[in-house]
Amino acid sequence: MKTLTIHGSGRDSQIVVGGRLKDVASYIPDERIVVISDENVAQHYRHEFPSTEAIVLGTGERIKNLSTAQAIYRRLIELEADRSTFIVGIGGGIVCDITGFVASTFMRGLHFGFVASTLLAQVDAGIGGKNGVNLDGFKNMVGTFNQPQFVICDLQMLATLPPREIACGMAEIVKHAAIADPGLFAFLQERCRRALELDPAVLERLVFDSAKIKSAVVNQDEREAGERRKLNFGHTFGHAIETLTGVSHGEAVSAGMAIAAAISVKLELLPPDDAEQLKELLMRLNLPIRVAVDLQRIAETLGKDKKRAGDNIHLVLLQRLGEAVVKELPLNEVRALVQASDSLME
Ligand SMILES: NC(=O)c1ccc[n+]([C@@H]2O[C@H](COP(=O)([O-])OP(=O)(O)OC[C@H]3O[C@@H](n4cnc5c(N)ncnc54)[C@H](O)[C@@H]3O)[C@@H](O)[C@H]2O)c1
User: Fold this and answer.
1) Which of 20, 36, 39, 40, when mutated, tests ligand 1's pocket best, judged by the most ligand atoms within 8 Å of its CB?
2) Which residues of the chain fall below pLDDT 70?
3) What is the pTM of this model?
4) What CA–CA distance (Å, rounded) separates 134 from 217?
5) Residue bearing the CA closest to ligand 1, atom 13
6) Would you state the pLDDT for residue 204?
């Protein structure tokens, strides 16, 4: 078991890689607990939940909205939850995002923590204190910055995760390696197959190193005024792809990173061989580098992105594998680059 700490403006957040769901109650002060989870996670792990009320949600990005948040608020009122109630989200990124948002807003804020049960939540979504829900076609448009008290990354829960969801988590590990850690990138290149087979030692290093990169960035820039923007590598295009096609977050980010790398090459920031290595690694991890969606529609959807600043957009590009740069570019120029990116990826 290894731990990391994020020093948030509101509170510290402890990340416990290798912690166990069954021990979650020991991380919680002597408070009443309410669990929020989803039906898949509850089906596999309800017997390990703390013996308390559990609010079990449906699944899928479509439930990450204000209606679900409202339904949870109402259930918390029925359960007579009060300011001394501790909320634990047990699940993937969707459960974590909704739980963090509800806990941060119900009665102006309850204490909360996560047991992250997908690889994607353990390396990314559970960590860093961004919580929120989607509104209409806008990803994560309503939300808060508020750190969970703890994030338990129970690696053993990954055994029941479908292979496609493992691949999605790998996309965020590739992202962290590509923006900040050439050593992690090389490690993953060398141990790709063992990673997909969930070799425990490989997995522990991938989750810990990835969580370390994210924690370090958040410690520098919790509210995304500068350095934290780099964590959005692949996400500007990824969010557009996710909204337009409904493919999962990890797969959309994978295709988004391929587009961002192609644009980085076009702008003569990134050597073409580095872009090739990135695409090759994504493919070896069973991730898409293209999805069936009109690039023009991706280009149009960029205007809805939160990284937009007036007529410009903050775009995260690569200078080499392991080093990212944020460029503020006119939205129209980015739209044109996206539309040309298919030919750039040939
Ligand atoms: N807040 C952030 O900083 C941040 C960062 C990245 C992504 N996200 C968000 O995270 C979400 C994606 O998260 P995700 O990929 O974890 O998706 P998810 O929460 O939908 O989980 C994927 C699927 O796996 C199932 N599942 C979860 N744990 C399981 C387990 N141990 N065994 C079997 N099945 C299990 C879920 O029920 C679901 O069907 C997106 O909404 C994305 O926007 C947030």
Assistant:
1) 40
2) 306-307, 342-346
3) 0.95
4) 24
5) 93
6) 97
Is residue 6 within 6 Å of ligand 1 at its C-beta?
no
Which tens digit of pLDDT belongs to each residue from 26-69?
999 888 999 999 999 999 999 999 999 999 999 999 999 999 99
Question: Could you tell me if the CB of 40 is within 6 A of ligand 1?
Answer: yes
Q: Is 165 in the pocket of ligand 1 (CB under 6 A)?
A: yes
Going from the Cα of 89 to the center of ligand 1, the distance in angstroms, rounded, reads 12
The phi-psi region of residue 76 (left if phi > 0; otherwise alpha if psi is between -120 and 50; otherwise beta) is alpha
**Residue burial 187-203, b: 16+ Cβ < 10 Å; e: rest:** bbeebbeebbebeeebb
- 198 C-alpha vs ligand 1 centroid, how far in Å? 18
Burial 128-159 (b: 16+ CB within 10 A, else e): bbbbbbbeeeebbeebebbbbbbbbbbbebbe
Question: Could you tell me the two tokens for 109?
Answer: 């804020």
pLDDT score recorded for residue 344: 46
Find, among 61, 111, 105, the residue nearest to 83 by Cα: 111
- Whether the CB of 121 sits within 6 Å of ligand 1: yes
pLDDT value, residue 308:
72
User: Is residue 141 within a helix (H) or strand (E), and if so which, with residue range?
Assistant: strand 138-145
**Element (H or E) spanning 2, and its range?**
strand 2-7
Contact 53, 35 (CB under 8 A): yes
**Ligand 1 centre distance from Cα of residue 195 (Å):** 19
Contact predicate 255/291, CB 8 Å: yes
